Amino acid sequence: MTLQHQSTGLAANSHRASEPQTLGFLLLDNFTLISLASAIEPLRMANQLAGRELYRWYTLTQDGLPVRASDGLQVTPDAPMHAPLALEWVVVCGGVGPQHSVTREHVRWLQSQSRQLKRLGSVCTGSWALGKAGLLDHYETSIHWECLASMQEAFPNVVLTAHLFSIDRDRFTASGGTAPLDMMLNLIAHDHGRELSAGISEMFIYERVRNEQDQQRVPLKHVLGTTQPKLLEIVALMESNLEEPIELDELASYVNVSRRQLERLFQRYLLCSPSRYYLKLRLVRARQLLKQTPLSIIEIASVCGFVSTPHFSKCYREYFGVPPRNERQGVHDRQGNNAAKSPSLIKRWGTEHNENAPFSSAQQALACAQGEPTFASVTLMS
To answer: Do the Cβ atoms of 285 and 259 come closer than 8 Å?
Structure first.
């Protein structure tokens, strides 16, 4: 999805600029620590570079007791989830076995947060909890690729994608690993400007902020299992021969099937023709080279098997919605996604901060950062 929010979605931000936004990170049993850190660290650095508290966060568990991450580390939360914290965002942090980690109490609490017009999000497999609560029906949603098939079966009304992260109206979901970092950088850019997001990236030595057009690398074996070895072999041949594409008749002969059988296999299991799938592989590879190497567009077209640059540019624009030159420059057309879009696209659901709330680790981190040379080094957009 490319940040095309529906008209019922996000109005202009009415949150007073002087007030920090308050987030609650609900930790499920066996949550992944890397996803939690990838979501919180950009908020900490946003505060440091701005020189003031833009974001405040709390870690929560169902009963306020410690919970173990998937790597065995035990984390003591700031508060139980029912604490009166005046949260504006709720982020569910999932990990291993979300089917067994989500309780009825989690579901009821998340539903109550939704009724209070909170922005709801998730990282890794936290989408499972929101799906079980019925809070992702008809929302575009990301989840770690291992859970794509099982979640689609369990929650058929959820619009699942293989994107690294998805932002759809008042829902934001990230697939896991370091994808929450990219999602948060995009959200911060919308809230406070691209300069702040870029500054955070520099501090984390993060060379390229990925957007919603970037997809998870879902192993085809995970999608097909072991039931279609010929199809897996054909795709492997395609992936190994991008610069000089193999003719479809030749591909079919390699695995001892007819051209007609080849077409049927792709249509049935990959929902497209073999030529379309082969083209997608070459274009995805071209996009990687555009963003990660200094190769010229002519060179990229050649190494990805295109006979001419105009043909490459035409195919690229048709598939990604932006020409290769603009992709490299980070410029997208009006229907594309870019971190510099108007902040009015992202709504903050404002509530007054509860003075009785526990001390936020964000405040402590900001106090410790005051001696850093980068403290207050970024001027926020007005």
So the answer is: no
